[in-house]
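Tokens for chain A. Residues wanted.
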């Protein structure tokens, strides 16, 4: 069995054929798609977070709204860039959104990916202390976030508060949402950061790219990353079982619309290697084929087999109806054949 959800980048544009022509379109359709995915029996609705772009950028209002409209499906991010976050304010937002959703948030956080502007975090008022990098800041912010959502009490109370304090001693962030600490994921781009995530007691979220550390096919490197994460988790002695996810672009060609959008032309049927920031990266292939052929191809993906959660990246600009159809095609024609359902 495998949890299956969608991952939306939340693009909007006025280009021909786009069903999301404004930020309002994207936000409202994201909620509608979460509702539709739940009705179809999918397990998760996840959203990317990018700043300075015509994409989803502020996740907590969206997660709270989707949480109020659904009752079962997991709601998550993939990922929140912790270079841009005040971890205490984020903890308040996360706690409130998780309580609205009834404890269904699955928050992916990380150092983030290249943004639309140079050093965009500086415009948000953040920078790295001397001797540190913004990657260090992202990890430090994450550690603070984890502590405060886990109930850390650190703030000296006012001896003459406006309202009586609920208990003596230091105060912590409110509201607290029980269990949220166990539902934080780290988006790891390398084996080393996957190991660090395990040491911190976070789940592992691995995307459609990672640092090329061996020259092997992407799915092999990603499977080895998952194995190293599990080994580090065991070594750290955590009591609960961790979760791991991978993301893929997968389309089952079951009707003329599918074949029109994904059945012809050039597709990324092979891994791609290239430079990203200051390191060499490997980008995973896309899958688009008739269901029987798709099943054969996916059986060979070692990372999908190793992960307990699969996030399907979706073309959100094609609208709610089409994306619900594409998700249903995977759940109906592919997942059962692979033992995921």
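Reply:
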């Amino acid at each position: 069995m495998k949890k299956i959800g969608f991952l939306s980048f939340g693009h909007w544009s006025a280009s021909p054929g786009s069903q999301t022509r404004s930020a309002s379109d994207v936000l409202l359709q994201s909620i509608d798609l979460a509702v539709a995915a739940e009705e179809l029996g999918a397990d998760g609705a996840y959203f990317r977070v990018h700043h300075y772009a015509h994409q989803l950028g502020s996740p907590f209002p969206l997660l709270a709204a989707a949480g109020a409209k659904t009752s079962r499906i997991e709601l998550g991010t993939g990922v929140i860039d912790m270079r841009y976050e005040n971890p205490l304010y984020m903890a308040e937002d996360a706690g409130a959104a998780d309580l609205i959703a009834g404890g269904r948030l699955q928050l992916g956080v990380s150092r983030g990916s290249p943004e639309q502007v140079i050093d965009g975090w500086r415009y948000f008022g953040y920078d790295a202390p001397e001797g540190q990098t913004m990657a260090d800041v992202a990890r430090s912010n994450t550690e603070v976030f984890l502590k405060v959502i886990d109930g850390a009490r650190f703030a000296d109370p006012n001896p003459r508060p406006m309202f009586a304090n609920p208990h003596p001693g230091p105060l912590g962030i409110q509201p607290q949402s029980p269990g949220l600490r166990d539902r934080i994921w780290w988006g790891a781009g390398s084996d080393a950061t996957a190991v660090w995530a395990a040491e911190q007691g976070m789940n592992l979220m691995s995307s459609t790219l990672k640092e090329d550390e061996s020259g092997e096919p992407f799915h092999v490197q990603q499977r080895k990353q998952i194995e190293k994460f599990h080994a580090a988790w065991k070594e750290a002695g955590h009591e609960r079982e961790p979760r791991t996810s991978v993301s893929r672009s997968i389309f089952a060609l079951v009707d003329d619309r599918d074949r029109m959008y994904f059945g012809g032309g050039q597709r990324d049927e092979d891994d791609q290697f290239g430079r990203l920031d200051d390191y060499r990266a490997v980008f995973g292939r896309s899958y688009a084929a008739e269901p029987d052929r798709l099943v054969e191809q996916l059986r060979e993906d070692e990372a999908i087999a190793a992960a307990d959660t699969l996030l399907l990246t979706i073309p959100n600009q094609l609208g709610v109806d089409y994306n619900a159809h594409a998700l249903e095609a995977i759940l109906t024609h592919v997942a059962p054949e692979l033992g995921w359902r």
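The chain has a mean pLDDT of 95. The domain at 3-338 is CATH 3.20.20.30 (TIM Barrel).
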